[in-house]
């Protein structure tokens, strides 16, 4: 009986020592850039703008101020495991009527706020963040056409949406929307109107 106990102890020592020697998996803090999905306009001035680090309450106030200003628009630009980044921009129409781009969104300010579940939810980005971090049907936000086809196969149909790189892949039970050539929306058939 003592032999079995000794063997068990040796096995446990071996197991615990091997666990201690394994390299720990390091989670990549990937930056996700959110496509804006606006056709016929362009965005300028984001690069090079100083980023304002704000608290949750401060960024909510900045968003509310943008909503009250008829000329200012609020956009969710990107996120990673630690931060959400937003920007406010003014729309300047193209002086040449009926010519693309229809106008330009000129960045006024760029805001960064520390992430938490409360912040994600309070700023209305929980669903977008979930799409990129967890996804649906094995598909995540930001994936390419090739990555989607590898998982779901060829779509039953494709609807072109207008702007280059914007289209829907329609499958039996799901629609995958691409903006700027990457997954931006995944809808269950029951979620969308027929």
Explained architecture:
There is one protein chain. Strands 1, 2, 3, 4, 5 and 6 form a six-stranded mixed sheet that branches. This protein has five helices and ten strands; from the N terminus they run H-E-E-E-H-E-E-E-H-H-H-E-E-E-E. It has two domains: 32-131, no CATH class; 136-191. The chain has 194 residues and is α+β, with helices and mostly antiparallel strands. The model is unreliable at 2-27 (pLDDT under 50). Strand 7 and strand 8 form a beta hairpin.
Report, as a whole number of angstroms, the end-to-end distance. 71 Å
**What summary fits the major beta sheet?**
6 strands, mixed
Q: Tell me the Rg in angstroms.
A: 23 Å
- Number-wise, the strands total 10
Helix percentage range:
25-40%
Structural domain count:
2
Principal-axes geometry comes out as: globular
Instruction: Determine the number of helices (DSSP H or I, runs of at least 4 residues).
Output: 5
Short characterization:
The chain has 194 residues and is an alpha+beta fold. It contains five helices and ten strands; from the N terminus they run H-E-E-E-H-E-E-E-H-H-H-E-E-E-E.
Provide the fold topology.
Layout: H1 2-21, E1 32-33, E2 41-44, E3 51-54, H2 56-68, E4 72-79, E5 83-93, E6 103-114, H3 117-122, H4 126-133, H5 145-152, E7 157-160, E8 167-170, E9 174-179, E10 182-188
Parallel strand pairs: 2-6, 3-6
Antiparallel strand pairs: 1-4, 4-5, 5-6, 7-8, 8-9, 9-10
What keyword list fits this structure?
2 domains, six-stranded mixed beta sheet, single chain, globular, disordered N terminus, 194 residues, 10 strands, alpha+beta
């Amino acid at each position: 009986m003592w032999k079995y106990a000794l063997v068990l102890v040796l096995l446990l020592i071996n197991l615990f020592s091997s666990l201690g020697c394994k390299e720990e998996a390091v989670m990549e803090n990937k930056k996700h850039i959110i496509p804006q999905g606006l056709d016929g306009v362009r965005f300028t001035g984001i690069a090079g703008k100083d980023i304002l680090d704000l608290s949750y309450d401060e960024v909510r106030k900045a968003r509310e101020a943008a909503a009250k200003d008829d000329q200012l628009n609020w956009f969710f630009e990107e996120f990673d495991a630690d931060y959400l980044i937003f920007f406010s921009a003014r729309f300047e129409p193209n002086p040449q009527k009926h010519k693309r781009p229809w106008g330009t969104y000129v960045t006024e300010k760029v805001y960064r706020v520390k992430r938490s579940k409360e912040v994600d939810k309070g700023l209305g980005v929980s669903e977008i963040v979930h799409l990129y971090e967890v996804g649906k049907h094995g598909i995540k936000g930001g994936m390419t056409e090739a990555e989607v086809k590898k998982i779901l196969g060829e779509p039953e149909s494709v609807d072109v949406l207008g702007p280059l790189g914007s289209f829907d892949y329609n499958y039996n039970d799901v629609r995958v929307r691409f903006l700027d050539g990457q997954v931006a929306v995944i809808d269950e058939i029951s979620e969308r109107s027929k």
